[in-house]
Every structure is written in structure tokens, then in C-alpha cells.
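[agent] plan:
  1. take the single chain provided in the ticket
  2. run structure prediction with default settings
  3. attach C-alpha cells to the ticket
  4. add a short note for the reviewer (M.T.)
[agent] executing step 1
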Amino acid sequence: MKLNNNKNTLFKQKKALIFYEALLIALIIFTIIILISCNNLKPKLISNFDINNTAFEVMVNDNYAYVVNNKGLEIVDVKDKTDPKDVSFINTPGDALAVFFKDNYAYIADNYEGVQIIDVSDKKNPKNIKTVTSSEIWDIFVEDNHLYLGGRRGIMEIYDISNKENPQELISFPVYEHIQKIIKYGNYLYSLNFGHGLSIFKISEDYKVVTPLGRIKLPANSADFFIKDNYAYIANTKEGLQIIDISKPESAIDAEKPKIISSINISTGWVNGIFVYGNNAYLTDGEDKIFIIDISDKKKPVLKNFIKIPDAFTNFIYVENSYCYVTYLKRNEKNPEEKNTFSSGLATINLNSNWYFNYN
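[agent] step 2 finished; step 3 output follows
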């Protein structure tokens, strides 16, 4: 009887030991899965794609990246984010500086050659269907069937592009010299002018009247801006990021004391590009980094992280879904003795995570 009791006790102990061993193995496997998942979820550079000449702006739509490289438009298939593929290139007569994509048309700010309207419905065979004649165009914006353009001369022009092959000018008006960036938001038009701040205009419904509402004075080196949810986010080359409340654009604007509700300094590089997506602002620093700033609290932005692109000079940025696309310059490795020669690239970064470490 005693022997049987000892056997039962041993049997129970073995079962308990097997159970705890299995539990320990399960915990180890679970821990490994969590660690791997966390590592995979951190922002990560997943591909670099060579771009000829000097890459400037990039827009992404439906797994295609549209990159202007000062000689024209390059279309890149980014369906496989880890292995982008060249689709086609179309040359433009001027210096391609900015791109706006909408409804299978790419609009190119072509500097001295105005704006090129390119039909990209056939990605492998893009066709330049019309040139909007103007001079020194640096930036463009398209909304509905209207094209907004401006540049070094400080003249803003608005065209009706219902007929892409026969655009009609609706109105032109002076702003300030050096129109760097144009954004139409609601019934208001915003123009960032290098050294002159952010100008605001109200556009009438018939596009016959443009009413200047004022100008927000900004640091002289403001290079780019983005508008989202009644806030303007200003990228300043030396001072980082300023956030401005633009919920009441028709209220009196004090040019000397703009309504900057917060700012955050980035003491590195030459901040020259910005894109806002979700609760984050992404800034390029002109060197080898992209900074991620948490803007969920507009009054207290927090610098969360940076992503590094080795040996790059970051340029423009575009964010879609969980991916960040960045154009950059790099030293010409084939001719290292030529210090001022560059090649370009398009970097793809996986942002599929909220797992960040603090930069500070």
C-alpha cells in the first residue's frame, strides 16, 4: 500500500515537472516572439533606390513613386518596398523642381519652362500633353480642376485645368518674391515666401477675386510647411519646427507676433522638408537623418526618434500608410576627388510601429 502511494506521488511530481517545463518553454517562445516583433516594428530603412541627377520632390500613389530629378520625372514601382523597380523616365525641357500627382496626371514645376502636365495613365509610357507657359516656377498645387503655381518672381497664377490640353488662366496676383511652397486649404491659399513668412489669401468661389488676409512673419530660414487639421507646421532650416494655429485665417494677423503656439529645436543639420501624418511630424535635416516628432499635443511637441540614412543628404519627404519615402543626395563615389558632384537616391523606411526610444 505504501509502495503504491510512493508511485502515485512520483507520478504526480513528474506531471507537475512536465507541466512547468512546458510552461517555461512557452514563456521563452512568447518572449522571443515579442522581442522579434518589437525589433521588426521599429522604424527601419528597408531599401535605397538610385535616382539619376538631383532628386527633389517625391509623391507616392497606388504603389508608384513619382520623383522629379531636375531633368524630368522618374516613375518607380514601390509595391515591393524592399526592392523598388524603375518603370520609366520622361525628360522635361526645364529644371524639374516639384511634382504634384492627381488622377493619373503628374504636374511638374519646371522652373524657367513653366509647368508640364504629364499623362501617366500608362506608367511605362508617360506623355507630356501640355506646357503651361510661365517663368521660374518653383512649386505647384492641384485641387479639383485648378492648378496653382508660383516661384521666384513672386507672382501667383491660378488655372482652370478641366481640359488638361487647354488650361485657362483665371487670375494672377503678386505675393512676394521666392514662392517656395503653395498649399490650398479650404477657401484659403497659403504661400511660403523665403524671407517673407507665410502669406494668406481668400479665394472667391468664381476665382475672380483674391483677398489678401495678411502675412505671418516667420524666421528667415523657413524652408517648407504642411497644413493639417487647422494647424500649419513650419520647417525652419536652423530652428526646427514651429506650429501655428490657422483655425481663424480671417482674424487680424499680427505679422510681428505670429500665433506660434509651440516650437521645438533640432540642433543638427539644415531642416528643409516636412510631412505630417497621423500624430507625427517627419522632418528631413539636410544631412543623414529624418526626425520624428510627436505632435499629439500641439502645445508640447516631443522629439521621439530619428532614422538615419548613411552617407546621405536628405531632401524631400513623403509619408503614406506605414512607409516613409525620402529623396536624398550622396557623394559621387565613382569620382570621390570631385567633392561637389552628387548622385541621388530614394530611401524607403518602414514606420510600422509606435515603439520609439527617446532622442533626448
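[agent] step 4 note for reviewer: The chain has one domain: 46-350.
[agent] ticket updated
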